[in-house]
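Practice problem 4.
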């Protein structure tokens, strides 16, 4: 039997390892991305195949469900045609501009990158300081993304044939899943979880890694380790 990490794709082969997956300790982690044991799922049974969505990106799905959690991905397309406009907060605008700057950086568009970063800093400077959020509140928000928002994005991107939106969904969902895994470990172990270790963030996709050094290759977007930044002053 083989079990696959739903975040980075690492496959645990019981036959090769000589230990059943269910016999691994509860605190066992993915050797590639550090995900928890609970983030693994059995690989498809013989006869099941991966299907490609309309955007050309592969989602290993069966019966119209999302590969990472079995969540249904159907969504009413009218939601994306007739929706209420809403004002974005300055913090949201700062995040959007920062992400656009990262996208420009990856495309070697330095002038556009600088302009988006200038906007991001301006919005960030006028954003009121946020109140402290507890772990439970953060987990609740991430669960909302995983259960509702990413499936909705997937449906909209597929309907429109928008490869960019589908890539955002794939990367964003994986990053959110590792955030959930890390928060659950922090809730269980407290500050001990972060003792004598470092925290690294991929500057391209936002993947978070806890360990002495950054992974050689980002498990999500596959950029090299020099694209990771160490979180200091925590």
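Answer key:
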């Amino acid at each position: 039997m083989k079990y696959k990490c739903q975040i980075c794709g690492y496959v645990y082969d019981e036959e090769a390892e000589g230990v059943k997956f269910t016999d691994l300790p509860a605190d066992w982690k993915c050797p590639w991305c550090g995900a928890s044991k609970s983030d693994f799922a059995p690989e498809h049974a013989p006869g099941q195949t991966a299907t490609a969505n309309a955007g050309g990106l592969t989602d290993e799905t069966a019966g119209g469900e999302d590969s990472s959690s079995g969540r249904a991905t159907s969504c009413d397309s009218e939601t994306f045609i007739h929706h209420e406009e809403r004002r974005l907060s300055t913090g949201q605008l700062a995040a959007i501009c920062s992400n656009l700057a990262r996208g420009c950086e990856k495309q070697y568009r330095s002038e556009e990158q600088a302009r988006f970063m200038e906007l991001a800093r301006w919005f960030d400077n006028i954003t009121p300081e946020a109140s402290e959020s507890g772990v439970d509140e953060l987990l609740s928000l991430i669960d909302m993304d995983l259960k509702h928002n990413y499936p909705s994005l997937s449906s909209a991107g597929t309907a429109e044939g928008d490869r960019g939106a589908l890539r955002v969904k794939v990367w964003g969902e994986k990053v959110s899943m590792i955030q959930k895994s890390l928060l659950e470990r922090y809730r269980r172990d407290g500050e001990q979880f972060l003792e004598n270790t470092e925290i690294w963030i991929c500057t391209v996709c936002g993947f978070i890694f806890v360990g002495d050094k950054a992974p050689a290759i980002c498990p999500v977007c596959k950029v090299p380790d020099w694209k990771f930044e160490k979180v200091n002053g925590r």
